[in-house]
Amino acid sequence: MRLWRSLLTALLCFSSGLMPLPAQVIAAPQRAAKTQTLFQTPASFRPPKGRGAPRQSVGAGTRGNCMATESTGSQAQKPLTAIVPVNRADTNNSVGLTLSEHPTFLIYIPKTTAKTAEFYLEEELPSAVGSSAQAKALYTTQVSLPRQAGFIKVQLPQNNIALEPGKIYRWYFTLNCSDSNDPTANAGAPFVSGIVQRVDQPDLAQQLSSVPVIQQVALYGKAGIWYDMIAALADLRRSRPTDATLTTKWVTELSSDVVGLPELSGEPLISCCSSRN
User: How many helices (H) and strands (E) does the chain have?
Assistant: First the structure.
């Protein structure tokens, strides 16, 4: 009789989900579950009201003589693209945020015969926001380009320039389609631009200093800090290419209404590129 009672009790516990599982069965999925919990929302980035990034995220200018020949259908050539969010309510004066003095900018490079590109940064003066004619030039560098299409990152150097909180900066990335020293020879080359503003948030900075990078991504996204969030996520995905949760997170952020670049979500992240002033 005792044996039957024991068996009956075990059966009831099992059917009701109360039966304890071995420790190793519980522990195995904990890391994956924690990662999934951080990224449980469709897209974690929340652009601050009235801010975002410029509408011109896709390469402007003519195709020049350095772009690969466009094909048709699903294999059509993808354009030079700045990886920035789009604030559709204010596309002219919207800004992407960073906490860093030396932020990282992510750019998609299509197949091109250009070997280098120019990265240029200027400060937009308060009286002439949106007018490059009255902007103050701060930094320029030549960036070597990869032979394959994919995402590259450009970071402001630690010893050359530092963004100040509250100021508005615009950056440009232009393919060098011509090897000529004549500056007019590259006129009409494909380029992209973005607007960045550094903000000072001590409480958020303190939170970020005490958590791993994967949690930093979630905190950046919740606070609307675009440049730091997408750079950290790209670094994580590059270091852990087989992590399905990170891959899903990357695809989700690029495919969201805020960014609108689902066609680029499967492109590779390339570890390069050297730059020189």
Answer: 7, 9
